Amino acid sequence: MTFGTIFAQEGTKADEKDATYEKIVKRGYIVLGTSPDYAPYEFQTTSNGKSKDVGMDISIAKDIADDLGVKLKIKNMDFDSLLVALQTGKVDMVLSGMNPSAARRKSVDFSDIYYKGGQSIIINKKDSRIYKDKSSFENKKIAAQTGSIQYNLAKKQIKGATVSGIEKGTDLILALQTNKVDGVVMEKPTAEAYASNNSGIKVINGGFELNDDETSTAVAMPKNSPVLQKKINGTIAKINSKNLIPQYLKEAGTYLKGNTANTSMLHYWKYFAMGVGYTILISLVGVIFGFITGTLLALLRLSNSKILRMISTAYVEFVRGTPLMVQLMFVYFGLGLFVNLPALTAGMIAVSLNSGAYIAEVIRGGINSVDGGQLEAAESLGLNKKDRMRYVIMPQALKNIWPALGNEFISLIKESSIVSIIGVTDLIYQLKIVQSDTYRGVAPIVVAMILYFIMTYSLSRLLKFYERKFN
C-alpha cells in the first residue's frame, strides 16, 4: 500500500506531504520524548523489577501509537532538551505536560488541547500564614522548572521576585524544603501529587492571570507535520469523547501510591546498580579513547610539521575553551541532524573527545620533562625517531605523567554525570528517577555520593599501586 493510498483512506489530501509521518509509518514505531519527573503527567515506577514510564501522558502516547498502527518507543531526557530533540529529529513527538505557548509555536507544531489545568504555588506548611497567593511573594525567592511556562509566569507576574530555574521537579521540592526558595510555581496536578506524598508542603492557588495556552497541555511535533497532526488530533478527540482523561489520572494515582509504599533506598538498589554500571562504562570508554586521542594530539603538537602542530593546538584550545555540556549537546543534537546517534554513544564520544584534549597536554608536558640527555643518548645508539620515542622517551614520560593521568581519570568519573541531560541512565540520571519515584530528596543524593566515593577511591588506590610499581 502506498502512502498516497493511506492518506486518501484517512481523509487527507493525497498531495499533502509529511516527512515525519512517512518516516514513522515506514519504520513501524513512533519515538516519544518526555521528562519522567512530572507526576501525574509522566513519571517512572518499578514493575517486576524493571523501571517503566507511566502517567497520563504515557497513556495518551500509547493511544496515539495504537491509532497510528505502530509501536511506541520512549526517550527520556531533561525537559529543556525536549524541543531541541524534536527539532533535530531525535524524537517524533513530545508529551511532557507541555503548554503550547506562542513562543513554542514558532519552533514546533502542537495538537489540539488534551488537558486544562491551572498554575499553583507550593509552599512549606509552616509558612501557610505568610503566603496566600502570588502577591505574597513580592521580593521573595521563587523557583520553577527551567524553560517552562511557570518560570515565565513567575518572572512576569511576581513583582521583584528572584526567580530560579531548576530542571527537575524533585530538585524544586528539595530547594523548597531546604529553604533555598520560598515557593515553587508548578502546574496544579503535579503540585497536588507532590503535596499528597509529602506532609511538609502545601499547595496554594497562585492567582496568576492566565490565557488558554498557560492552562492547557498539548502534544508537540515537528513543524510542517500536517498528517501527523491530524492523526494525533483524531486520537485526542476520541479520548475526549470517551472521557478517558479522569481514568488515566486515576491510574497514575495508583502508581504514585505504589511508589511511596516502600521508599527505602535498598528497594531501589537496581536503579543505583544500573547507574553505576553505565557510569563505569562511559568513564572506561572515555579513558581508553581519551588516552589514544590525547597521545596522538600530543605527538602531533611535538611534530616538525607546522600544519599538524596548528591542527593539534587548535583542537586542544577549542575543546578546553568550551564546556563539556555544550560539546555533548553538539554531538547529540548537532551531529544528530546528519547521523542519528544513540544517547549513550553520543555521551561516550563527547566524553572521549573532551578527555583527549586534557590528556594531550598532560602527555606533552611529560614528554618535555624527560631530560634532553636521554634523547642524545638514544641518538648516539643509532635509534631512529620512532624507536627513540617508543623505547626511551615514552617509558620515562609515562612515569612522570602517571599522577596527572590518574587525576584526569578520577575527574572523568565525576564529569561523566553530564550525560544524564540527554537521557543516558548513568548514576545521576538514576538518582533523579529515585527522587521522583519516592518523593525523597536527600536520601538518594547521599547514596549517590557514597557510590561515587567508592568508585573514585577504588580507582585512586589502584593508580597508587601502579605508581609504586613505576617507582
TrEMBL record:
It is found in: Cell membrane. The chain crosses the membrane at residues 271-300, 330-351, 441-459. Keywords: Amino-acid transport, Cell membrane, Membrane, Transmembrane, Transmembrane helix, Transport. CDD domains: TM_PBP2. It comes from the Bacteria. One of its GO terms (biological process) is amino acid transport. Gene3D superfamilies: MetI-like, Periplasmic binding protein-like II. It is a multi-pass membrane protein. Belongs to the binding-protein-dependent transport system permease family. HisMQ subfamily. This is ABC-type amino acid transport system, permease and periplasmic component.
